[in-house]
Amino acid sequence: MKFSVIGDVLLFQAIRFFRLRGSREKGARGFAVGLTCNFFPTFGFGALLSGFLARLCGGNIVAGFLGGSLLAFFWPVLFFLNMRMGALFLRPSVPVEEMGDVTPQSIDALVWGQTFLIGAVLNSLIFGGLAYVGFLLLYARVQPFALRWLRRRLRKRRLKNRLG
After folding, report:
1. What is the Cα–Cα distance from 125 to 142, expressed in whole angstroms?
2. Which of 20, 32, 81, 105 suits 137 as a labelling partner, its CA being 20 to 30 A distant?
3. What average pLDDT does the segment 88-117 reach?
4. Crossing angle for the helix pair 61-70 and 24-36, nearest 10 degrees?
């Protein structure tokens, strides 16, 4: 019962998201802002924070949540990217040459360092810009197919609820 209600809410939110008219830019802004949150330590609140920040920046909250959830499981890789990018401009206090160097001790020593911060800011700007442009280009192509698929799912769900 509970999963059915959650499924209905997610389905309606997805339809609402893909029915955005004339605000493709608003969805792209929300997605890009949500994605950039992953480059900073959010201590488990990244997805919620990304939706809030997307709304604060005038973006779509659902797109922000989606962008924030997308890279949440790749935090060690993003940490490594931040350190490598920051090392181009400032030498880190603990060397991080490969993924094996990302240990809890190195994270504790470096997460609030200048090298990490410079890398995080630059990576979030680069990847946020790429996500924004990519979303703008793909949204118009995907929208009709996604709406058709979501409406079919909605019809099946309604039919199932009437019969069951």
Report:
1. 25
2. 81
3. 71
4. 40
